[in-house]
Amino acid sequence: MSINFYNTLSRRQEEFQPLEEGVVKMYTCGPTVYNFAHVGNYRAFVFEDLLRRYLEFKGLRIIQVMNITDVDDKIIKAANQKGISIDEFTEPYRQAFMEDLATLGVEPAEYYPLATEHVSDMVALIETLLEKGIAYKTEDGSVYYKVAKFPRYGQLANLNVTEMRRGKRVADDSYEKEEVRDFALWKAWKPEDGDVFWETALGKGRPGWHIECSAMSMKYLGQHFDIHTGGVDNIFPHHENEIAQSEASTGEKFVNYWLHCEFLLMNDEKMSKSLGNIVYLRDLVKKGYHPAAIRLTLLGTHYRLKLNFTFEKLEESGKIITRLRDFKKSLEGEFPVGDLRVAEITRKCVTDFTTALDDDLNISNALAALFTFMHEINSFRLTNPLSQVDAQAINALLDRIDSVLNILKEPAEEFSIEERQLIDARNKARQERNWAEADRLRKLLLDKNIVLEDTPKGTTWKRKL
Ligand code: AMP
Ligand code: ZN
Description:
- By secondary structure, this protein is α/β, with parallel strands linked by helices.
- It has three domains: 4-261, 3-Layer(aba) Sandwich (Rossmann fold); 281-405, Isoleucyl-tRNA Synthetase, Domain 1 (Orthogonal Bundle); 417-463.
- It is 45% helix and 16% strand.
- It contains 14 helices and 16 strands.
- The chain has helices at 39-57, 73-82, 86-103, 119-131, 209-221, 235-250, 281-286, 291-299, 311-329, 340-358, 363-383, 388-405, 417-431, 435-447; strands spanning 4-7, 12-15, 23-28, 61-66, 135-137, 143-145, 183-188, 198-200, 203-207, 225-231, 255-261, 264-266, 269-270, 307-308, 450-455, 458-463.
- A five-stranded antiparallel sheet has the order 5-6-7-9-8.
- The protein binds adenosine monophosphate (AMP) and zinc ion.
- Zinc ion (ZN) is lined by residues 29, 67, 213, 238.
């Protein structure tokens, strides 16, 4: 059956059709690494992981790009205050971000481009916009996008552009722009930027934030690709500006499906650094909350609904995970021949799980299918012993479902972050049938006393004692 997603651009649910058969090209707005990301940010990244994993479950190959914003006003200010380079300043946060993704069982993207390493791509894009008369330079050497030149501006955020104030100058650092709604593509160097600048054909300065995502997405995925994601706060102005920049420069449609995740709230307010109501993943883990329970909490509410963060929810998720894991461990077959009733319960679970996620990733119904399955198998077992074939089939189904949910495997935290990354990389190499790389990683893990066993049901891994 086909997958349907709610597309922010059309404001309705649409059947998903990738541009190239069997392949999905997807861009995800990544973190600004001026601090640790909080669990609100991770709600967005876990939603994107669910999306990615479900597309893989459906047999599609994913090429995902997640940018890392490693230069912006806040980063420059903080690095200058500390008297270190922006690279030195962002390095620990970049590292922490990758560690947190691994902790949450997020499957790595194919590319994590750094903004600072793609300035020449951004400059080239800005030059195209200047040549086309869509961008203009101001006296101080900054470059702005002229929104009036792009009639479709406002389509994503559903804005009435004529209502946006025009022609008024504002007393901020962008006072030279012609219209309030114009936005910066290139920011000319100012003394407070210190050593942070690039000498380019546009002059001395640095790129704006929006151009970063247009340049890096098109570089890795092409001018027109399938899916672009982010939190709802990215819709305007960030994603609206990305469309304006990309489509005005290429003359082509930029992205087919725009998917946005609602906020994680704390006491009914958006969890955000500026409000100060944030919770860090590593603090939760230190307090003893299981990463899989945090993952399930972030994952378990439909991505387009607001979700209030509470410790009760984390505890409830922990109990659910224990029940599911105990159920999986209890599956011992006693005799060879299978029972048609088990086959039917299993078949129904696959259908219900898939139907739910096909419907704009309806995770509540997908989880309900899993709980019903566990309940029905347990009821069956009250009066009938399980056969070996049935136990194997149930196990295989749970593994398949867990390729999407990623909550049932043995506690990942038994391994260090580096070890987990190696395990993930090896699983990926194996999925891609890159046997040489899979073998190399197996040996590396063996050196660390981690033994992998590939079975028809999937790969198991344990530490050699
Ligand atoms: P930032 O580092 O602020 O650019 O945010 C990284 C990602 O987290 C973006 O996709 C944001 O939309 C998303 N985000 C930020 N705060 C929240 C929140 N409270 N709930 C869900 N997503 C969020
Ligand atoms: Zn972005």
